[in-house]
Amino acid sequence: MCEIELVLDESVLKRPFGNAEVMREQLEYLAECARRRNVNLQVLPTDAGPGGGYAGARGELNIVETPAHDRVTFLEIQGESLLITDRTKVSTHRQRYAKIRAQALDPRRSLGVVEESAGVRR
After folding, report:
1. Burial of 34 per CB tally in 10 Å (0-12, 13-18, 19+)
2. Contact assessment for residue 102 and residue 2, using Cβ atoms and an 8 Å cutoff
3. Using one digit for the tens of pLDDT, what is the confidence trace for 73-91?
């Protein structure tokens, strides 16, 4: 079973996409996924970092581990994709990802934020 780590900026939970029903269903599904044993979902609050200067300010970042246990970075920007295999660059991206995770809420609190955004009552 593959392990999935995901950090979402809190703003994506609030930005309307489709109508209210579609948004609620998407958030409920996200919460369902976050409850899985192989998924670690964290929410990066909009107020993370001093003065809003959080580590995720540079945009989307995907780090993938291959079956051979090599790590690569995958970036998708404006419909273009880029696979980075240079170990030094990937190391820099891994360090940035570590900072993003450090500024994010823990998985339990993150699930609560997702559920609250979906209107789920505990």
Report:
1. buried
2. no
3. 999 988 899 999 999 999 9
